[in-house]
Design brief:
The chain is an all-beta fold and 275 residues long. The chain has 2 domains: 198 residues, Nucleic acid-binding proteins (OB fold (Dihydrolipoamide Acetyltransferase, E2P), Beta Barrel), CATH 2.40.50.140; 51 residues, Ribosomal protein L2, domain 3. Helices cover 2% and strands 23% of the residues. The chain is built from 1 helix and 15 strands. The strands form 4 sheets. Strands 9-14-10-11-12-13-15 form a 7-stranded antiparallel β-sheet, with no helix packed on it. Strands 7-6-5-8 form a 4-stranded antiparallel β-sheet, with no helix packed on it. A two-stranded antiparallel sheet has the order 1-2. Strand 6 and strand 7 form a beta hairpin. The protein starts with a strand and ends in a 5-residue tail after the last strand.
Length: 275
Amino acid sequence: MSLRKLKPVTPGQRFRVVNGFDSLTTDKPEKSLLASKKRSGGRNSDGRMTMRYLGGGHKKRYRIIDFKRNKNGIPATVKSIEYDPNRTAFIALLVYADGEKRYIVAQQGLKIGQKVISGNGATPDIGNALTLDKIPLGTTISCIELKPGQGAIMARSAGAFAQLMAREGKYATIKLPSGETRLILVTCMATIGVVSNSDHQLLVSGKAGRSRWLGRRPRTRAVVMNPVDHPMGGGEGKSSGGHPRSRNGIPAKGFKTRSKTKASNKYILERRKNN
């Protein structure tokens, strides 16, 4: 991984920090694994704006990612590491021994020509996918299932990882990227290693126009609205707006919104750390 700080040849470039993309090997995606992706622009079927601050953005095509890793016991070779405009992590193109091609979320250190495999016969090496009962304790994992066969839904973004802490009975104890510690069934799959592109958090856009390219329109601060538009609006001059809250009046900055009767509460051993 490498970052490039651009020379200040224009105001927009002055503070710009971009990804060096030195780990990518191609800029042409696999056509058979592409799908179209429509943009709503924040409008509903009547053409009326129902979501604020959405719209514009560069055209994208979706890369079909294999989150289930259910091609067990068949070795695959990493053909390329590619950029994906739909996620912060890089993706890897696998070519299986039977000729099938699939994209997966790339782990840090995955190399061209490397062999990866999924299933219980796999070794705990980077890029391999195993069930939690076959992974050694203390291993760094990512792309974790929450229900068996569901497909990876946790620790999928750039630089994310979790740690397998313990196993007891049919549950494994996992420390998640948020700091939360919870129980997950040992029959759930996880991938060995840290998700790629860990420098993503250090990037600097440099100008507002780049947010427009990503489909984000300018966001209006609540305190500059009128009282009819937001609970924090109104007042003379630069009023603070009272206690921070959402447009619907729900308090923010520390107010807990998770239900005390939620069924999955019993699986959470330690809540995430609050900043």
